[in-house]
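Fold sample X.
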Amino acid sequence: YYWRHTKETQLSKFNQTEIEAMLGSYTKVLFVRDPFHRLIATFLQGMGSSPSFSSFVQDVLDSGTHNASVAWKPLVSLCLPCLVQYDYVVMFGFHRQELGHLLQRAGLSVGSLLPKFTDTQVLWTYRWLSEQMFSELSAQQKKKLSRFYRWDLSALPFSSSFLSD
């Protein structure tokens, strides 16, 4: 197939037959992160110009899903998990466990290829940060954020998210 040698990387550049052939010939892995954790990371990296987390969240909500930055846009609109049959979904915070399984399934040596992740520390830190940042938000902002990310929360396993009311 000529598409194996093309520089195009977006599926939208190919016709339906080519898309189906490509998706059927690859192992598809989706890396996901709790939407609230994505917001916190974006804010901490200074990608928003807001002075407080609450005002940053308000800017996100005001932007709407169609004008949202890729940094905080709902994952469902970016990677279409309802249309693409992903073989693996790797959750942020469980990289060591899940990547080890993925490498083993691919027949690769887990020990030499897997970097040292500190999943437990990452999960604990984000849990603490989530509690602090969530407490800064108004009840209305919390409700609107849950609605903003409703499709992510229903399509992906974020059951412990602060937004999963």
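Fold sample Y, listed below.
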Amino acid sequence: YFNGRGKMGSIRWLLAAAGVQFEEVFLTKREEYEKLLKDGALMFQQVPLVEIDGMQLVQSKAILNYIAGKYNLYGQDLKERAMIDMYSEGIGDLMDLIIMYPFKPPENKPAHLNTIEQKAKDRFLPVFERGLANSQFLVGNQLSRADVHLPEVTLMLQELLPTILSTFPKIQAFQDKMKALPTISKFLQPGSARKPP
């Protein structure tokens, strides 16, 4: 992938939470991308590409689902997986809004930031606050990929809107709990594979 967050950010988070050591190869020249194409490594001619277990995986959701399944972060049964997918898709929708912010022209940034804040407060964060009301995890009784992606997106939100979680105490407490997990704590340290905004 490129040396930035983008679609690879969530994959890095999930690998880090699972305690997986990984090596990154950054695309810095067009020729590197073209070589991947020529070699047939990119099924749909796009990155990210993750090489794992002798496979070349593309498509972010497929990569995330494979990693989650391999490292026991994908629920106990189909019903739990469906709930994890719903939470993860919602988180992805919110991330997509945030990821587009830096690419907006300066005159459009204030309106886009207002859209992010309004949708986060009205549509997304209340769902997660309710989901954590009577449980230590979003789904079931163990850590899942949805739990890993929630602090990823809330930390991204706080980079743009530092006080956005002020009316969501369950999410704040959950974020603190997740940041204290040894694998995630290590990932949040300077010099880790986590990329800046």
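Sample Y note: The chain has eight helices and two strands.
Also: Strands lie at 49-52, 55-58.
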